[in-house]
Amino acid sequence: MTAVLQILFDALSLGSIYALGALGIAAIFGVMRLVNFAHGDFIAFCVFAMLWPSIDAAAIVFAGRLPFYLLIPLLLSVGAALSMLSEVIVFRRFRNANPATMMIASFALGFVIRHLLLMLYSSRPKSITLWPNLGLPVEFFGAHIPMLQVVTIIITLAVLAVLVLFLKHTRYGLEMRAAADNFTMARMLGVRANGVILLAFAISGMLAAAIGLILATNSGTADIGMGANVMLIAFIATVIGGLGSVPGAVAAGFLIGAASVVFQATRPHDARVFRDAFVYGAVIVVLLARPQGLFAPKSAKQRV
Amino acid sequence: MSKPPSVIRQTVVTPIVLIAVLLAMAALTYAFGSRAFNRTAIEMFINIMVVVGLYAFVGNSGLLSFGHISFMCLGAYMTAWLAIPPVMKSITLKGLPVWLLHTQLPMWVATPISGVFAALFALIVGRIIMRLSGIAASIATFGLLGVVNNVYSNWDSVTGGQGSIVGIPPTMNVWIGWLGAAVAIVTAYLYSISRSGLALRATRDEAIAASASGVDIVRERLIAFVVSAFIIGLAGALYAHFLSIVNPGSFYLRTTFVSLSMLVVGGMYSLSGAVSGVVVMSVLIELFRNLEKGVSVGGLPIGLPNGVQEIAIGIITIIILIYLPTGLTRNREFSWRGWPLQRRLASPVQTALKEMN
């Protein structure tokens, strides 16, 4: 029983991170048909924003010293600002380009951000301690669950609730949903394209910052490549969930998290190293069964 | 009314021009280049093979593939298995079957075998993946990359795991690099003017109309997939001979994206674009590498700080794509008088692509 609880919490917290990542990708894809490969580097950038630039081995914690009620809003605005800036400087010029061109442009942007970080901070991972008491386990029906897992899950659920409220009950949310459904039509009905796209980028950037905070607290290190893995799984999750479907992206994020945790827990040790191969294999199988994704929105259907 | 000239007569100029230009580059490098510069040139020729192989699939089918670098991985490891002296293999790669442990083949034999091996693998997985289209196909190829990388990184007894396998005879020189690039260009060219290549380009531009005219999309895509896997498998084999070590990390995301960037920067729907993308990017990389090392101006050493190279390359890529979203060649081929067929198709293709967005 305790083992099952343990697995459940592992799966939920890993799934939470993937779901937040998938949301960040889906938000931008919905309005702009852009798969943002720079998202992982946005995550890393937000983590490194807590440190003062230096190439020494010891990290100089800068903003990371702030109390949480200042640090969290600060990082969220860093993420949002970086993301909106990249829209204004780069992606705005690709509105009419084909998806492959946009994808490569976003990859190039991520490349630039990553090497900027490398230049400022060097490639060594740096230790960063945020809220160490979140690592302590809490007793939960006999299972020892790290506090951080519980917090991660609660944060994710809160973010999801806020996003749903925003999308369903505010004017801007309505505009975003309209734009995601049919961009041209939405513009004709008075939705301002630039505003909606900027908003989507801001949301995506804040989600990146949130993931960065969770990852940094969890691992206690800041590493240039830390966002890349989340980005890849998040990207896959958005496709499996059905590109353009926000609930689909979240569900698929949780699904992939659960699948990898369950695989890790149930296979014999020798097979565990092949976990990723099985996860990617499963992705191919899911796509073969449902090429449009598990929760494809109606607008994604191809018209002849 | 005169008979229109054949497709070959109209288009054969492109591969000839490309191969001749590369030959000139190889000759200049061989005559004047330093040892380090020779290595840069060989790397460029191998990149040309990879990107031309990518073009054979991506350019003709219009599907973006993230999985082709896995064929490079397969080719490189196959070469390692075939070409490393048996004495070394029996220590590092104990899990190989006995007959493979005791063979050692020269480069001229090992390389084609590696290409065929990659092509066979593509034939098997392609039968499954090619049934998908659009972004689902791209993600499935991505999954393929993930699976291959994971298996090759962890199957320690056969692939040496995360570490490197050493001992492949380093027999590459700039002429073999050029020859490899020429083989890749000719193969890709012959495919793209073949019946299957023409049919596949029709499905790229108007999938529904093409399939209504009796084109079997899955079959044509599979053929392109196998052809491109063969070319990239060859590239992987030469890459193994070039570095004389292989490790799975070099056939993963970074290589995938760098080669895709080169293809898109050059122009993903044309063979000339594939080649010129690699050449331009290689020249830029080499240029900034030298700037980083520093040049002395009037006795004063001036150098850019380390890391500027990558940042500059990224920014230049973005700028090229902003002003030339269809790449440096704008998806056209080098030829004496343009390719009438392509010029006429250009505008509907662009609208179709816009509608797909």
What distance lies between the first and last C-alpha atoms of chain B, to the nearest angstrom?
42 Å
Structural class of chain B: mainly alpha
Number of domains of chain A: 1
Shape of chain B: globular
Largest sheet of chain B: 2 strands, antiparallel
In terms of DSSP E residues, the strand content of chain B is under 5%
Number of helices of chain A: 12
The overall average pLDDT of chain B, rounded, is: 87
Reported by name, the CATH topology of chain A is ABC transporter involved in vitamin B12 uptake, BtuC
How big is the Rg of chain A? 19 Å
Cross-sheet strand order for the largest sheet of chain B: 1-2
Low-confidence stretches of chain A: none
Number of strands of chain A: 4
With strands numbered from the N-terminus, the spatial order across the biggest sheet of chain A is: 1-4
CATH class of chain A: Mainly Alpha
Biggest interface goes to: A-B, 47 and 46 residues
Helix/strand-derived class of chain A? mainly alpha
Head-to-tail CA distance between termini of chain A: 52 Å
The coarse silhouette of chain A is globular
**Helicity level of chain A:** 55-70%
Our Rg estimate of chain B from Cα atoms comes to 21 Å
